[in-house]
Amino acid sequence: MSASEMATQGQGTKRRKEEKAKKYRKESAFAQNVFFIFNKTTELVSEYDIDGVDLLNQMLHSILFLGNINATPYSPDDIFAEKEIYLKTMTDFPQPFERYREDVALRTSFSYFLELIVRCFGENKGKVKAKLCEKLQGCEKSGPFISSVICICQVSNRMYYGESLTCPGERERQIMIAVTCLHVWNP
C-alpha cells in the first residue's frame, strides 16, 4: 500500500470517527434533554403570553455555556439537530450565541424552567410539583439538565423554589457551584 493510499484510508477512518462522535452527541441525553427543556420553556412562554425574552436568553446562554465546557463539548448545532430550528433560534436569540464562549452562565437551565413554572402557575407547592411532572412527561429524567430534587422554602407567606444542580459532569458542577456562591439570585 502506498503512502497516499494509507493517508486516504486514514482520512476515511478519521471522518467515520468524527461522524460517529457527532451522531452520538446529537442522540445523547445531553442534547435531547436541553432541546426538550428549551422547547417546553418556549411553549410555556407562548401559551401563557409571558414576556420571557430575558429568561429565554439567559436559559439558552446557560445551555450553550454548559455544552461548551462539557468534557465532550457540544456545539450549538449538536444541540439543535434540525438546521431550520437552529437558524431560527439564532435569529430569535442572537445574544446567547455571541456570549456563551466568553461569559459564565449564572444559573442552570433547569432553574429558569422552574422559575417559569412558578410564574405561570403560582407559588402553590402542590401545583408547582404537579405542573413540573406534567411538563416533563416524555423527557429522559435521569439524564443531565433535569433536576431530581427541588427545594421549597417559605418565608413570610412567600414561597421560594430552588433545584439541585443539573450539570452533566464534575467540572461543570464545580463551576456552577462556584458561580452560585458568588451570584445570589431571587427571581
Question: What does this protein look like?
Answer:
It is a single chain. The chain is mainly α and 187 residues long. The chain contains 9 helices and 2 strands. The protein has helices at residues 3-27, 29-47, 53-69, 76-79, 83-92, 94-99, 109-121, 125-135, 170-182, and strands at 150-155, 158-163. The protein has a two-stranded antiparallel sheet with strand order 1-2.
Helix/strand layout:
Elements: H1 3-27, H2 29-47, H3 53-69, H4 76-79, H5 83-92, H6 94-99, H7 109-121, H8 125-135, E1 150-155, E2 158-163, H9 170-182
Antiparallel strand pairs: 1-2
Helix pairs in contact: 2-3, 2-7, 3-7, 7-8
Summarize the structure.
Helix content is 63%, strand content 6%.
The SS-based structural class is: mainly alpha
Question: What global shape is seen?
Answer: elongated
> Describe the biggest sheet?
2 strands, antiparallel
Whole-number average pLDDT?
84
Strand order of the largest sheet: 1-2
Topology pattern, helix = H, strand = E: HHHHHHHHEEH
Determine the fraction of residues in helical runs and give it as a percent range.
Answer: 55-70%
- Radius of gyration, in Å, reads 19 Å
What is the end-to-end distance? Answer: 65 Å
Total number of strands = 2
Which short descriptors sum up this protein?
9 helices; 63% helix; 187 residues; elongated; mainly alpha
